[in-house]
Amino acid sequence: MRSSISASGVSTWLGITEPAIFGVNLKLRFPFYAALIGGGIGAAYATMVQVLSVSQGPCGIIGVICIRPDCMLQFLVSAVIAIVCTFVITLVFAKTIGRKQLATL
Fold it and tell me: What is the model's pTM?
């Protein structure tokens, strides 16, 4: 499990999320829910401050190349918000419901 988590984590930062989703998050469920909630909070902030892009492009951290120059700082702030919220929510879920689930693996 640890090797799957580290390998999928690297690809997730670059926008390829399938290894993390199908290899780790859906097996444990609570990291998937935490990622949904954290991503939603980050997206809500980006929508609130009207982050705009010039075209469709890659997702993840490298998606900054498609963001309008006047919105890049707010995009990075929304990414940090999403990452921090997801991390905190994952820790909370792991302490409450994750222990039972991890014990069964």
Answer: 0.81
